[in-house]
Sequence to fold (653 residues):
Amino acid sequence: MVRQAEALLLIHSLSPDEQKTALAKLIRVYTDKSVNENQTFKSIKKFVYSTILPAEKIDQVANELDNQEQQKMIQTQYTWQAVDEFANTYRPLLRALLKVLVLDGPQHKAVQKAYHFLQDIFKREQAISKIPFNEFPLTFINAKIRNFIYDADSNTVQTDRYEYECYQQIANYLNGRSLFLSESINYRSLTDELLPNWQKNKSTIIRKANKPLLNQPMSQFIEEKAKPLDEKIIAINEAIKIGDNPYVKLKRKKDGSTIWTLPYTKKSPELNNPFYEKLPPVNIIRIMQFVNEKIQFMKEFTHIKPHYAKSQLDEMAIYACLLANGTNLGIIKMSNLCDLNFTSLQTTEKNYLRLSTLRAANDVISNAIAKLPIFRHWNLRPDILHASLDGQKFVTEWDNLLARYSQKYYGFDQGVVAYSMIANHTPINAMIIGANEHESRFLFDLIYNNTSDILPDIFSTDTEGSNQLNFLLLHLIERLFAPRYRSLRDRSESIICFSDPSKFKDCLIKPDRKLNDRLILSEEDNIKHVLASLLMGETKQSNIVTKLSSQKFASRTKRALWEMNAVLMTDHILTYICDLTFRQSIQGSLGRGEAYHQLRRYIELVNGRHFRGTNETQISVWNECARLLANCLLYYNATMLNQWMEQCDHRRQ
Fold:
């Protein structure tokens, strides 16, 4: 609707680019040597009006620049005109949904009243235009836009605009998880997501979960994690002051204040080892056959009806389907390129290539890579396995529920995100998410539901992978979350302390506020209820995380969880500033994730095609096929390097 409003607005005014061009030409009149300085000002004005802008357009540009509020009002006016113009396109579908969706929530009672008012009218199949003015709930409408929707003096309501404003607010509150749909999977309330009968079964659930954070009182968390923050803040500031941390650079501003930066170490240029140049090219099918001979991952491709299967597993057909889907070629084109017919490939794909079998096969290969002696030599720190998580954008050719438009990543196309977890170059888990979803909401899902035997100790992401919960969620499963922030200094301004913040007023790196430990202690039972529900996995963990990480969702329990997360985030930032090895490990882990993305992109570009699945399952299957191809390549390379390493060790080289 905003695009239509902008189009209507541009009909009656100059675009921002046209305004800038006109202003530039007007300013150059003062320095233009071709203009005769002896002529009258009247003739100069006439020249400007005829060659640059007419007088009325100059006034319009000046007024728009001078009065931004008026410009916003004009844009709002055209927005509502666009609503009137396009009402017939969205109204039938939204009214059909309105009749059946059950809205609920403790907040936003005014807009809920308007929603139920419209719902009652359309269920009784009444004409909204015939409803008397005094029956319309109007309190949910913002004062700034009331004049565009109704007129109290004439007792009239513009019903299309009234409906649109109600729908728009409901959509915003649903996305912000401050209103709920009781019969929805993604939009139901937090209470519906949590384990039932908590008070009755609490002891049994906590014992079954067997996690230290649930077994201990919250006062112990405060004692062990929050109280030491004060000393750590003072120690880090003292180290910077006396020069024990030379990596922190100080700069004095013009106003006399001092700012600090922590520059990233520039990466040395990468060169291919001459060893790889001596290796002959190998067919990808031969590589998959080699991997299967070593570890028999083909055994994981079981028939969808194992007790009634009439056909036997055809390994070459499996290889062809994996290659066709992994490279986005598809089995139709693959049948035209190989000696296997389409019917054979289609039967094999339907009977054997499922998410469960593909993930099991990937786990077999990943576990085999981890068992090679060379795997531990790839650790960035001794005896610590450091993994990274990141999303990679892929264009989709066909419409599906996950595909979204993003001009930044897809241009005029639409696409999805392949969210992957990589440990020591190996992709150990992956999932497909919508391009409109925040990656951080799925981080716990990806880590906790990892079915491979590779269990990393530390997990790193970029800024997109962090939110107000992930530090706490990984601490819950006894893992460490270690993101790399885009602007570390800005993020450090939100750290907290345990005691009075005024005692740090002279510090360079100072806390923003004091921990609200009373809130944590008062919400202890609710905190454990939420955390236990995440561990039990009876609902999608990403749904709970999405609700609890929303700014618009009002809850004391949410605020208490955010306080606990802030403690762990503060500890991470302080460690990041003072520990060079820690920073290098995070950077190295994220670099390996990018290297996998390059490999994954090359696999996709073999045929220059995009994902062509029509639903989430089909796209996920293709993504798992591509991950399996990558895992086969990694196992093949790792096996060669491992043999070379063992030969060198045997010769003591």
